[in-house]
Amino acid sequence: MRPIRFSSERLESLFQQTTVATLPQLKAALGTAVDLTVFRKLSTLPYRTSYSHRGAYYTLDSLAHYDESGLWSYRDIRFSRHGTLLNTAATLVAKAPAGYFTEELEAVVHVAAKDALRQLAQQGRLHRRECQGRYLYCAAERAQRQQQWAARQSLQHPEDDLQAAIVLFYSLLDEQQRRLYAGLESLERGHGGDQRMAQLFGLDVDTVARGRVELLGGQVLRERVRRAGGGRPRAEKKRPAS
What we know:
Number of strands: 8
Strand order of the largest sheet: 1-3-2
């Protein structure tokens, strides 16, 4: 007896008719009751699983009309070019100029995102910091999240033109310059300046203090952002054993 062969063309035909399909519909199109058979055939197609409705819907990339954020909705079913809700949230937060509060991201993805954001922060894929009694989620990479924090501080105080200008200028600096500038602003503010600048720029208090000490001691590196030996250690090349 010849083995039964299932054609992925049947799935493509179904998607052309319905745009979006469920697993039971895909099974019926193939004439199988086995989930694995459906997923094996789907793997040969550029398909997407919905990040809403617990991933119960499927579509093809060729049928989706993604917006500039990589999102697309069919009726109330949500799809993302980035894949799962976790990957979508991580990508959108990292690209957001001023990071995202939970409710801001939820307004973009149109599903509950609190648990996903908490999980991403626990995994180290995103960074979160308290801002006016709420968590602001930013990129995991330090320089990027400092820029996002600075931009958020500017948005939080639009009426303060001087502070907005300070934050904007800070966001244009490299790592060493940011540290030194934060130290300079701390010096001008006197007692409590380190804490205030750390809050404004999203830095550790110790980083602001270090910048202040470097300025007072003239310990400024003119050609390097980090001291020699700073940053990640250089990976050693392994030679094959002879």
